[in-house]
Amino acid sequence: MNTHPPIEIRNLSVVYPSTGRGMPPKTAVAELDLEIRPGEVFGLLGPNGAGKTTTMNVLLGFVNATTGDAKIFGCTARDPLARQKLGYLPEMTYYYKFLTAEELLRYYARIFKIPKAQRESRVDAALKLVDLEHARKRLIKTYSKGMQQRIGLAQALINDPGLLILDEPTSGLDPVGRMQVREIITRLKDEGKTVLFSSHELGEVETVCDRVAILHEGKLRVIGKVDSLAKEHNCGLEQLFLRVIGYQPKLKNN
Amino acid sequence: MENIIVIASIALKELVRRKDAYVLLIITVLLTLISGSVNMFGDLKMVRYVKELCLLLVWICTIIIAVTLTARQLHAERESRTLFSLLSKPVSRNELILGKFFGCWFACGLALIAFYLFFVVTAVSRGEHWRLLEHFQAMWAHWIMLGIIVSMVLAGSLLFTAPSSNATICVVIIVGILMLGRHLGKLALHMGGLKQTITLAVFYAMPHLEFYDLRDLIIHDWPMVKWNAIGLATLYGMAYAAAFLGLACFLFRRKPLNA
Fold this sequence. Notes:
The complex is a heterodimer. By secondary structure, chain A is α/β, with parallel strands linked by helices. Chain A has helices at about 50-60, 100-110, 115-130, 145-155, 175-190, 200-210, 225-235, 235-245, and strands at about 5-15, 25-35, 40-45, 65-70, 75, 85-90, 165, 195-200, 210-215, 220-225. In chain A, helix 2 (about 100-110) packs across helix 3 and helix 4 runs parallel beside helix 5 (about 175-190). Chain B is an all-alpha fold. Helix content of chain B is about 80%, strand content about 0%. Chain B has 10 helices and no strands. In chain B, helix 2 (about 20-35) runs antiparallel to helix 3 (about 45-80), helix 3 packs parallel to helix 6 and helix 5 (about 95-125) runs antiparallel to helix 6. Chain B is globular. The interface of A and B includes residues 62, 96, 112 and 165 of A.
């Protein structure tokens, strides 16, 4: 049994080189320490440009750390093998229009080298979880946005991962779509999966997450359990978020 | 290796399920049949004319298929963000490049078989005798050339941001090599100094796609090329494809991906 935490980030800094003459290098993440425990749903919050996506990119091996290290189940994130136990849902992905849902899932199952005997049962289970069994033979180009997002979740689950990284999983969805995705995340939590997700929907984070971290300008500002933070700071998550990022409302009621 | 095959299968499926290749095949069939219907008096030269036109269309169409199919691969993966889904799985960037190469190359091979089948049927229906080995040799050389083109376009898709600019630049280079490649060496001999050095450098460095153009042999019923020459041309083509793929892998590894 793997005793390493699903995510372990130590002293992580990512500095993007200068994009033009006279432009300084951009520090996207600075000295970030973060550990996510098995079975918890962890929310990564922050305004745009706070460093959430860069942190996820390092975990997924898309971007190299300038200093520090990120590990997934004890394996360095740079190693493709680290991604064997990981599922990832990118923000607003449009999957191959010329494939059907089951073909798409078979394709990703083959990437994970899931034996043929198990492949079909995994495809069935993933489609059942996201409630897309009825549309499994339809081309993805005929799917609505909500269905696209659910097939995205299904592909992230095809390898039965221990850790799921979801990048704004409800972005662009209508209230029903959001509710469906939220239900799926809750079901995954009940199954004991570890979930890391970023979102701008603070109400959703409050409902689903066990712990949250707020990043601002690449630095970790606040971390803790949702209810403990509320008690400690004597305010809701939204107020805390605004306070942490230093937002001052410009309009005041007379 | 398994990942490469799996990724390649998607490019193959794309060619089969999209309409582009069928449209080009139908255009080739129509233009060939229309031009073929003019030959009412069994004139031998007319048969050659039909064969020439048909083969020219096959060449143009397969180059278009190779360039457009390959140019959109990485760009479409990035645009639709499936690239991030794919690379978040245990797949290396090199495997992705090789998978795309083999997928596009085999897809071009499939299209090539359909086009050559039509050509052979047309030629035989116009009174030609079966020359299967000659046709196979021409098709094989053609396919190797498409391998060089596919790898070149794949490397281009990492150099140029838009697939349209990549496709245009690659088509200009391909047409340039096919039309002027064989004359460049002779041209250099009439030059002097630095110009000659540069022209000769370009002549020796570029992939000579014209080596693979065996259309005249088929049109004029000339004897087959020796198989060892075809073997050497295959090795030459593979070396260029490997060089372009090496460049593509190098560029892709250095590219930061921001999901």
